[in-house]
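Closing statement on the 4'-deoxy-4'-aminopyridoxal-5'-phosphate sub-project.
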Amino acid sequence: RAPFDINLVRRDFPILQERVNGKQLVWLDNAATTHKPQSVIDRLAYFYAHENSNIHRAAHELAARATDAYEGAREKVRGFLNARSANECVFVRGATEAINLVAQSWGRANIGRDDEIIVSHLEHHANIVPWQMLCAEKGARLRVIPVDDDGQLQLEEYAKLLGPKTRLVAFTQISNALGTVTPARQIIEMAHSAGAKVLLDGAQSVSHLRADVQALDCDWFVFSGHKVFAPTGIGVLYGKEALLNEMPPWQGGGNMIRDVTFESTQYHDAPGRFEAGTGNIADAVGLGAAIDYVNRIGIENIGAYEHQLLLYATHRLKEIPGLRLIGTAPDKAAVLSFVLEGYKTEEVGAALNREGIAVRSGHHCAQPILRRFGLESTVRPSLAFYNNCADVDALIAALARLKGGRSSF
Ligand code: PMP
């Protein structure tokens, strides 16, 4: 049973009424992106109908409305992350841009030859490639926390990697490919004891767990709006305020300066120094509306409900003969990754699509972790709080039909 009215929640997401291939859509691709409640869609329309203006620069009524809406959204992000100050919340395009910003700003200024950056074997390419590029430029070294056969990080091995050369540990709170929830607090504490900074990738976690950056004590936290029921093209880089103000600007342009002459330029403090040019104003406002929506349901209620649904889905998937679940850590959230003996993952994805069921099949932009399990690709149903047991049953029935058997329920 959901601690909220699941039928009402489902009605808040108009796309769930969509028909695909003659069937009602079953959306199980939430790890790739989430759908938007009507309140977010309405907020975007309201912005363009009543508030649209560039922010800060013009002294007129609509500029004031747009600025209030944009800065109001930043304050909502602050509350959502429990940051100390809204100045610690920089609007960016998404998690990928946030990580690249830290790599190119802090990384270029602070990483030198033979320094070490630690990532985990679970990482999305977005939390591997920017560090690899930085290491190549600086002659630094990338090291990797290994996982066990369940897909959980091995902390004893991690402890051995930490040392005086470690400058940064960058890792994910939840794996997008396996669903593993990593012991973030402990990993962060160990990194800080070794004198390293920590970037936590919250792209998969913000829609399932409370992200309390003060309790976690991470130096940076990144997420994408579109994975938490907000529009695409907007995301957040959180950073501790003093640290952000020590970091050199990444992109130059309007908005990020205090004063410009041809001889020299003074930059704003954070967040302004990292928001050059006209930002994604309406979508930031949409992110604020999505946070309001999540707060109304309650992230703890969401997590508790999804946990029950994950247990149910895991139990039902295990009924399918020849199905191998990848990622069996005790601490998991929302993601089920599997391969089906005798079928290519694309075949499974296409068969499900014919029945209106959306899952991702592929490498999920996390090739290293799939290869750790000897695979190039898995089928990945992933849950959100608007999914229900009927969605899981539809998936199981479709898989059973694909195998030519009959579903047992
Ligand atoms: N990290 C993780 C764990 C992700 O799942 C994703 C998105 N799949 C990203 C980073 C990158 O997010 P985006 O593409 O929205 O920038």
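Residues 227 and 302 are 14 Å apart (CA to CA). With this model delivered, the sub-project is considered complete and its resources will be redirected to Aim 3.
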